[in-house]
Amino acid sequence: MRARNYFVGAAFALLAGGMAHSALAQDIKIGEINSYSLLPAFTEPYRKGWQLAVEEINAAGGINGKKLVVVSKDDGGKPADAQTAANELVSSEGVAMLTGTFLSNIGLAVSDFANQKKVFFLAAEPLTDAVTWSKGNKYTFRLRPSNYMQAAMLVEAAAKLPAKRWATIAPNYEYGQSAVAVFKKLMSEKRPDIQWVDEQWPPQGKIDAGPVVQAVAAANPEAILNVTFGADLVKLVREGNTRGLFKGREVVSFLTGEPEYLDPLKDETPEGWIVTGYPWYSIKTPEHDAFLKAYQAKYNDYPRLGSIVGYQTIKAAAAILAKAGSTDPEKLIAAAEGLSMPSPFGAITFRKIDHQSTLGAFVGKTALKDGKGVMVDSAYKKGADYLPSDAEVEKLRPKD
Amino acid sequence: MAFYVVQFLTGLASAASLFLVASGLSIIFGVTRIVNFAHGAFYMIGAYIAFTLTERLSGAFGFWGGIVLAAIAVALIGVLVEMVLLRRIYHAPELFQLLATFGLTLMVEDLVVLIWGPDDLVGRRAPGFKGAIDFFGQNIPSYDLFLIVLGPVVLGILWLLFQRTRWGVLVRAATQDRDMVAALGVNQKWLFTSVFAVGVFLAALGGALQIPRDAVHHAMDLRIIVEVFVVVVIGGLGSIVGAFVAAVLVSELNAFGILIFPKISIILVFLVMAVVLIVRPWGLFGKPEAPARKTPGLTVNPWRPLTQNERLMALAALVIAATLPLFAGNYALTVGSEIAIFVIFAVSLHFLMSVGGLASFGHAAYFGLGAYGVAFLAKMAGLPMIVCLLLGPLLGCMGAAVFGFFAVQLSGVYFAMLTLAFAQIVWSIAFQWVSVTGGDNGILGVWPEKWAASPSHFYWLALGVATLVTIALRAMVFSPFGYALRATRDSLLRTEAIGINAKRIQWTAFVIAGTTAGIGGALFAYLKGSVFPDNLGISLSVDALVMVLLGGVETVSGAVIGAIVYKALNIWLVSQTDLSKLVLGGFIMLIVVVFPKGIVGMLEMLAQRRRKASPPGSPLLAKPIESAE
Questions:
Q1: How far apart are CA A318 and CA B118, in angstroms?
Q2: What is the ipTM of this complex?
Q3: Nearest C-alpha in A relative to B431
C-alpha cells in the first residue's frame, strides 16, 4: 500500500495531532518531501530507495549510535504545498534537515524556505541549474547531476556526430527551456558550423505529437535534440516511428535511458538514440552490485534511477549528519562542504564552491533487446568532469 | 504543398479524438445542466480498462472488441454514478453537481494508480492500422486516417440519433426546456440516466481509442478535461455540430500555429475561446438561452443581517481564533494563516457567485495577480511590506477591471468559461515571460519584514484582514449596491426595467471581488515567501469554487465555513497520506449527498425548521435561485 509512507510506526503519533513524539528523543529525524501523488512513476522507486537506505543505516548502528527516522510528506506537485509540508517538518516534527523534491520549482521553493528559516536542505531530484547557481544559497545542496552537467555529457557525444542541421523538441517550461539553452550554447562552442533549423515547444504533458513531428520533419534536420519525457515521450516516439521522423536522423535525448522513461516504450523503443540514463543491468562494479542485490532482495523488483536517487539522498544525509556530530545547520553545512562518500555509482563529493554533488550519469545508446528498450555502449560520466570552471561558477552564484 | 495537406490531415485526426470526448460532454450538459468535471475521469478509466482488455484479448477482434467493451463498461459505471450520486442532487443549487463530479475525479485519480500501478502504460497498436501511408513523400499514419473517418461517422450517428429517434426528440426538447418536458409527463429520471450513459460512453470511447497513440497514465484526465470544456463552449453548449467544428478549428489552428509560433499550444485554445466568446457570446453554434423561469423569494429564505445573538457568537468565534497563538505551535499558526487567506479568497468569489450570480471559473487569476503585484513591488521596487500589501492587490483590481468588462457581457456557463480563458491567458503570461516573472520557477524571497515575520504576528495580520474583508463584503450585501446586485442575479430583465444599469453593477461587483481576491493573494505571497504561476492556475480556481459550494452557495457567508473546512482538511490529509485525493474526494461526495445545500445552507435550513413549525415548502421542491444561468 502506498499510504504507508511513514517509517516505523510514526504514523500513529502523527495522527494524534502532530504533537506527540513516538520516536525517542535521541532519534535523528530527517524530513523528506516529494511529489508522491503527482509523479508516482518516479517517486515510488525513489521511496523504495530511501527506505532501503534507512534500513541499512539503522542496521549498521544508526548515526553515531542514534536511530535514523525519516518523516516523509507529499507535496502534490505544488510549491505552496511543499512549503506547508516543509514548515510542518521543521516546526512541529523538529527534523534535523530537509531532503527530497522532484520538480524544479518545488526544489527552488523549498530551497528558499530553507534559506529563510536557516534549515539544511539536500535537494534530491530537481535538475534546474538555478538551485545551485543563480538562486543558490548556503543552506541548499543538490545530489543529482544538474541540467548543465547532463547537457555537457550529451554534447560531448553529440559534437562528434557529422550532423550540421539540428532541431530541438522540448517541453515548454523551465526545465525544457534551460536544457535546450545549455545544449545549444555548449554545442555551438564546440561546433560553430552547426545550424539550428527548428524548435518545437509542446506544453508539458499535453504534446499534440502528430503536428509536432510533422513540423520538425518539414525543417529537414540531420539531428534532433529531444527533452520530452514521460507520456509526452511515448507519444512523440510513437508518432515519430510511424511517420519515419527518426529514420536516417541522429537523436540526442535527455533522460530517455532512465528505466522510468525507457521501459514504457517497450518494443517501440527507437534504436540508436544518444541518451543519459541508468542501465542497471550492465553496471558491473562492486558498489552497484551490492546495491542491486540488496534492492532486489528487499523488493523483488529492479531499481529505477529514482531508487538510486532516493537511496543516495538518505545515505548522503546520514553521512553529513554523522560527520557533523550535531544537528546544528551551520555545522551540517561545514560537514557537507567537500564531503566525499561512496555511492552505487562510485565515490561522490559535495563541492564546497556550489554545493553540487559530483554524482554522474550514464551516457549510451538506446537499443531493442527481446522487445524491450535497453541502453548499450554505456559509460559512466563522472559529474566532476562536466562542470564549468570554478571562476565561472563564482560568477553564476550569488555571494552568501 | 504535400506537407500542408498532411499537416491538415494530422490536425483532423487530433480533432476527431477531441470531438468524441467533447460531444459527450456537450450532450450531458445540454440536457442535465451538469458541469461534468468527471468527464475527463471517465475518459481516463476508458483508456485504462481498454488497455487491460486489449492486452488480455488477442487478435484484431480482441483489440476492437476490447475498445468497445471498455467504453460500455465505463458507460455502466457512469449509469451507476448518475443513479447513486447525481440523481440525489439535481435539485441542489446549480453548479453543486460540479462539486460532486469534482470529488469523483479526485477519487479516480488515486484509484487508477492503486489498481493499475504508477507506471505509464503503453498499449498495443491497432491491428491493421500500424503503419503509415506515403503521400508524396510525407507519411500519414493509417490510424490517423481511421480517426479522421471516425469523427464524422460518430457525428452522423449522433445526428441520426437526435433527429430520427423518439429518444433524440426528447433529448432535444429537454435541452431546450427541461421543465416543460417534465411537465409533459416524460420520465426525466431515465432520460437523464440514458443521456449520461451516452455521454460517458463517448468519453470512454475517446479514451480507449488513444491506446495506440498515447501512454495511459493517471493524469490523462486533467490533460483533456479543460480542453474539452473549451471546445464545447466554442462550439456552443449542447450543439454537437458546434463541438465538431470547434474541435477542428482548435486542432487546425494548433497544427499550423506551431509552425510559426512553436510555443502557441500552451494557450491557443483559450485565446480562441476568448475571441469567440467576445464576438459570439453563445459560441459558434449556440443559441441564446431563454431567460430562466425563476421564482425567487418564494421558496428561499430571504437573506437578513445577523441578529444580535449571532453577532455575539461570531465575535466569540473570532476571539477564540485570535487566542490561537497562546497555545498553538508555529506550524498550526502558519496553517491558520493559510486558512485565513483562503477565507478571504473564498468570500471574494462568494460575493461574485452568490450575491452576483456570476460563477467565475478563473478567480485565481486575481488572487495570483495580487501575489505577483506584491512580488514585483517587493523585489523590483524594493518597497516596504506595508506598501506592497496595500498596492499589490491593485494589480488584481486592474486585471478584474479589464477582464470583468468583457466577462459581464455574458452570463451563465459562458461567463464562467470566459473568466477561465482570461485566467489561463494571465497564467500563460506569468509562465512564459521568464525575464519578468521568472516563468515556472517563480519569484523567490518575498518574505515578510521583521514585525510580521513571526508566525503569531503573521497569523494575527491574516486573521485581521480576513475579518475586515468578510465584514466589509457582508456590509456590502445589505447596502443599496448589494440589493441592486442581487436584483441583477434574480432577474436581469426586471432589474433593467426599473432603471438599474445591470452591466455596470455586475462589473463593479467583479472588480470588488477581484480586488479582494488580490488582497488574499498579496498575503499569500508573504506567507509563502514566493510566487509561482500555480497561484493563478486552474486548480486554485477550482479550489475556490469548491469552498464556496461546500459552504453553501445560497448563504450570505457560507464561504467562510467552506474555506475553513476544505483547507484544513486538505492540509491535514496531504500531510497524513499519499491518498489524500481519494479521501478528500470521498468526503466531498459524502457532503454533497448529505448536505445538498452546503454545510452552512443545511445548518440554516435546520435552524429555520426549528423556528417555524411548518417550513414554507419542501426543500426538495425548492428551486435554486442563484446560479449560473
A1: 29
A2: 0.86
A3: A173
- Mind spelling out the 3-state secondary structure of B148-160? HHHHHHHHHHHHH
Helix or strand (DSSP H, E) at A252: strand A250-257
A362 beta partners: A277, A380
CA atoms B440, B445, B447, B449: torsion sign:
negative
* DSSP conformation class of B368: H
Q: Which residues contact B500 (CB under 8 A, 6 or more apart)?
A: B484, B487, B488
- To the nearest 10 degrees (0 to 180), the angle between helices B393-407 and B412-432 is 140
Strand partners, A226: A169, A253
Residue (of B283, B415, B408) closest to B362 by Cα position: B415
| Whole-number Å distance between alpha carbons of B485 and B504 | 10
Q: What is the Cα–Cα distance from A201 to B26, expressed in whole angstroms?
A: 30
Yes or no, beta carbons of A211 and B258 under 8 Å apart: yes
Neighbours of B278 (CB within 10 A): 14
Residues 49-108 of B with CB under 8 A from A: none
- Residues sharing a CB contact under 8 Å with residue A318, sequence separation 6 or more, in sequence order: A53, A57, A63, A68
Which has the closest alpha carbon to B143: B121, B124, B156?
B124
DSSP lists the bridge partners of residue B355 as none
CA dihedral B234, B236, B240, B241 (to 10 degrees): -70
CB proximity under 8 Å: A 354-383 to B: none
Give residue for cell 489561463: B424
Return the amino acid letter for A62.
Answer: G
Residue B132: its chain A contacts at CB < 8 A? Answer: 242-244
A193 CA: distance to closest CA in chain B (Å):
24
Residues in chain B closer than 8 A to A234 (CB atoms): 120, 122, 214-215
Q: Which three cell numbers stand for residue B473?
A: 463584503
CA distance A303 to B205: 35
* Whether A2 contacts A40, CB under 8 Å: yes
Would you give per-residue pLDDT tens digits along chain A (400 residues)? Answer: 343 443 333 333 333 333 334 445 579 999 999 999 888 888 999 999 999 999 999 999 999 999 999 999 999 889 999 999 999 999 989 999 999 999 989 999 999 999 999 999 999 999 999 999 999 999 999 999 999 999 999 999 999 999 999 999 999 988 899 899 999 999 999 999 999 999 999 998 889 999 999 999 999 999 999 999 999 999 999 999 999 999 999 999 999 999 999 999 999 999 999 999 999 999 999 999 999 999 999 999 999 999 999 999 999 999 999 999 999 999 999 999 999 999 999 999 999 999 999 999 999 999 999 999 999 999 999 999 999 999 999 999 987 6
B59-84 helix and B39-56 helix, angle to the nearest 10 degrees = 150
Query: With a CB-CB cutoff of 8 Å, which residues 235-254 of chain B face chain A?
Result: 251, 254
Task: Find which of A127, A201, A249 to mutate to test the B interface (most B CBs within 10 Å of its CB).
Answer: A201
Instruction: Please state, as a whole number, how many other Cβ atoms lie within 10 Å of the Cβ of residue B275.
Output: 12
Tell me the C-alpha distance between B71 and A166, whole Å.
Answer: 43
Closest Cα in chain A to B570: A81
Among A7, A75, A87, most B C-beta atoms within 10 A, so best to mutate, is A87
Query: Amino acid identity, residue B180?
Result: M
